[in-house]
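Journal club prep, notes for RB
We'll compare a predicted complex against what the paper describes. Inputs for the magnesium ion case:
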Amino acid sequence: MNVVCLDLEGVLVPEIWIAFAEESGIPELKRTTRDEPDYGKLMEYRLGILRERGLGLKEIQETIAKIDPMPGAKAFLDELRAYTQVIIISDTFEQFAKPLMEKLGWPTIFCNTLEVAADGEITGFRMRCPESKLTTVRALQSCGFETVAAGDSFNDLGMIKASKAGFLFKSPDSIKADNPDLPAFDEYGELMAAIREAVD
Ligand SMILES: [Mg+2]
């Protein structure tokens, strides 16, 4: 049985922190792992800014609710889910993803969890496991699934390379150039055709 494992940000929805920074007018939140490679440090920095601004989970979810999936993303996902099994595997947090999952028709997502106090303040975060995308794909394979994976960024390369077929989608030129062996697409129609070929 096949499972298609899809990245979320940059593939189906915009980068959540960047879109949130724009929507909320807090440019400091545009800092990414390219500026601060230590993800734990980056998250502490982001949560510190949210605390300073008095932004709790409710305010953040209201802002994220104004962000839309990429044009064509829902139709692509609907078609793919009617055709085979799909899991979105993301490094984001379930509470941030929720307003976007609603707009995508509640697909299955495996991601991480924010720790939230009773008053809505985000006090911390829990990562599900190390190298979550690769670890999840290997776990699916260990119980009899064949995986096909697609994503746009460095953190997707593990699951893409470990799958029976893997694709770059809407990736920056630098990642495409570093991985010339991986098929790269920018249109949902092209990705759908490649996935169907791999699954059939
Ligand atoms: Mg991504």
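Talking point for the session: Residues 7, 9-11, 151-153 surround magnesium ion (CB under 6 Å).
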